[in-house]
Amino acid sequence: MIQSLLIANRGEIACRIIRTARRLGIRTVAVYSDADANALHVREADEAVHIGPSPTRESYLVGEKILAAAQATGAQAIHPGYGFLSENAEFAQSVIDAGLVWVGPNPSSITAMGLKDAAKKLMADAGVPVTPGYMGENQEPAFLAERAGEIGYPVLIKAVAGGGGKGMRLVEAAPDFIDALASCQREATASFGNAHVLIEKYIQRPRHIEVQVFGDTHGNIVHLFERDCSLQRRHQKVIEEAPAPGMDEATRADLCAAAVKAAAAVDYVGAGTIEFIADGSEGLRADRIWFMEMNTRLQVEHPVTEEITGVDLVEWQLRVASGEPLPKKQEDLSITGWAMEARLYAEDPAKGFLPSIGRLELFELGDAGRDGARIDTGVYQGAEISPFYDPMIAKVIARGDDRNGARELLRDLMADSVVWPVKTNASFLVNALEHPDFVAGNVDTGLIGRDGEEMAAVPTPSAEGLSWAAMDLVPDYKPLGFRLNAPPRRTAWFALDGDPVEVELGAAGDPHPQPSVRYSTQGQTWDLTLWRKEGEAAGGASSGAILSPMPGRVIAVEVAAGDAVVKGQKLLTLEAMKMEHSLTAPFDGVVAELNTSAGAQVQVDALLVRIEAADEA
Fold first, then answer.
1. Is the pLDDT of residue 489 over 60?
2. What is the mean pLDDT of residues 562-579?
3. What's 541-613's CATH class?
4. Which of 537, 533, 520, 536 is nearest to 494 (CA)?
5. Residue 580 and residue 558: Cα distance in Å, rounded?
6. Phi and psi for 531 in degrees, rounded to 5?
7. CATH number given to 338-458
């Protein structure tokens, strides 16, 4: 067994790996950037090495620094986690060449499955069904547009080196293709250093179903059944579950056999996931499920597989990397119960899911001690959420005897979460878990696209809850009237996240005056203070001032000073937390000020553009 392990990652997955390594008696080494100096994974590891500035391209993506840290600390092996360098064949080979153990698949397998076009051809040759599309070398925009027309809209543009929903665009009509292609290629270049794309037919009622596979160095390959990851927003998974709703045993057998065949085609070793797209319009059928891609690493959603199989997949990774055979054979693996995982992001659904950064003054994720509850996180109360990394701050996992039991537990955990002042998608997740189609298991990848506004609706604070919270803010109050045979009624004005609200005060308990209190319900947290009317905030869309919603980099400017614009017109594109965000004109007018350019780094609330209404210009 490996004795010392460097984890070439950060956050939740680094903490997850450390947990298993500690149980196995393996010494762990963490690496960290400037922004992560006080991160949880740094605190939990036996040793930690600083590897550079906060941007990933100067720290976590620099293979030479990772190798140097391993050699300096005497680490025997390197575990890449997911993301970053986990599917970089060149880095994997450099680890092996340095005489270290690579906790992952062979570099040749990463290469074979790393480019989506080559992987699809390989799978087709191996007899695994693939979706129709174009996977050629010609990347001329006009040529790709022509191929898209032949495939038939809607189509999906996908970066061949992509993953995690990045470098992917849905195009529903021919006039939108060229702009979508350019945006996709920009994001692919920024995220993966490769602008090459493929085009696929877009399935109208698609379900995203994947199979966990595992191979060892002794020629054994098994599957650990399927996961359903169909609930997605902009191609990023939101809630995952295992097993898949509506999966019958015959379809499961065919699907999992195809996944094992795919892994065998590249002599796969270690943990991997074969992703399939299914046409769910007539239920799950083996003849309507096609290979989509393979992820040659551990997946974010691996805990749901662990919860239904009783297997620690990280332990399996470490044992296989140490040369041991798989701990179990296929006939020893079975499904018990149901599991669901929700990805808790530092983002604000009420503001278009813009990332939220800052210090976690409060960070409480439901009752993590409940039977069946599991919290995987890389942050803690008091930690800083920075703009440099992915906004996922925790994975909340629930296990139940059946699907509804897992769903109800996960809903309760999200509803009881309290996070402040950083905004999260917790209330959005509660709404998603209670959506009638999700409750019924009738989920496809377009559900959030259709009903996302309903799911993003902010819950309404209850009168009773506000009353109890407000009691702590009133140092001395007098009854404002009374009702016959009823307690005196007391009301006062408060500010709920800055908006005035009149609250009836309860009669129980003595008040404890303080500047503010937090009020939470259904995963949403507000700041409650005594009402002090202020003047209107400067700037904002109503004034025509377009402020940066977060720190980031301007990657495209679509207008110039003096240009006439219409409401909704794109003004510029901002990149932050590895995602692109478009800023648009709030009304018809003229660009009176333009204070930025492509490539500029901007801070939160920086004035980027000012629009004057047409009648003012």
1. no
2. 86
3. mainly beta
4. 533
5. 14
6. -70, 125
7. 3.30.470.20
- Site of tokens 């109800």: 408
Distance, CA of 411 to CA of 237 (rounded, Å): 17
Active-site pick, 207, 252, 297, 610? 297
Cα separation, 428 vs 422, in Å, equals 15
Mode of pairing for the β-strands spanning 4-7 and 27-33 = parallel
Residues found in the chain: 617
Of 235, 228, 237, 288, which is closest to residue 258 (Cα–Cα)? 288
For the question of residue 288 being annotated catalytic, the response is no
Average pLDDT over residues 63-70: 98
Average pLDDT, the chain: 90
Put simply, whether the predicted model's pTM sits higher than 0.85 gets the answer no
Residue 469, Cα to own-chain centre: how many angstroms? 32
What gap in Å lies between CA 66 and CA 50, rounded to an integer? 10
> Which CATH architecture is the domain 132-201 placed in?
2-Layer Sandwich (3.30)
What are the tens digits of pLDDT across the range 146-164?
Answer: 999 999 899 999 998 877 6
Cβ atoms 400, 338 nearer than 8 A: yes
What is the structure's pLDDT at 488?
Answer: 53
Which regions of the chain carry the CATH code 3.30.470.20?
A: 104-112+205-336, 338-458
